[in-house]
Amino acid sequence: MSDTPKQINFTIVPAEDAADAPTGRTYANFCAIAHTPFDFTLTFCEVLPLSEKTIRDAETNHVVEAPVRVKVVVPVQFIPNLMGALQQHWQAFSESYANVGWNKDPIH
User: How confident is the model at residue 103, as a pLDDT?
Assistant: First the structure.
């Protein structure tokens, strides 16, 4: 037998109908990012409309807490592919919806 490893080309796709797949979707409109030398943590939150009390508190302590919806930890090596995929999808989105009139400025 050969000691040369066999190379197999394959594509990974989400198995949304798998028994162990999470159900539903999680909405987030804010993402905080942190990193270590080994991984990146993406903390997705949902920023809700602010109440008068929340606004008064924010004026004092300059902080608004948002409920965490999910934390995703990925290895450093994953980040370049994630950034590339986001750029490709952003370009396709921008070209598809250029005439819709959506605001390109960040919301946060």
Answer: 61
Non-local CB neighbours of 79 within 8 Å, separated by 6+ positions: 40
d(CA 11, CA 6): 16
Structure confidence at residue 15 (pLDDT): 72
* Distance in angstroms (rounded) separating the CA atoms of residues 74 and 76: 7
73-99 in b/e form (b: 16+ CB < 10 A) is eeeeeeeeeeeeeeeeeeeeeeeeeee
Q: CA 71 to CA 42: how far, in whole Å?
A: 6
Question: Quick check: pTM over 0.85?
Answer: no
Burial (0-12, 13-18, 19+ Cβ within 10 Å), 67: exposed
87 token code pair: 């750029």
Sheet hosting strand 30-35, strand order edge to edge:
30-35, 39-45, 68-75
Q: Is 30 exposed, middle or buried, given 0-12, 13-18 or 19+ CB atoms closer than 10 A?
A: middle
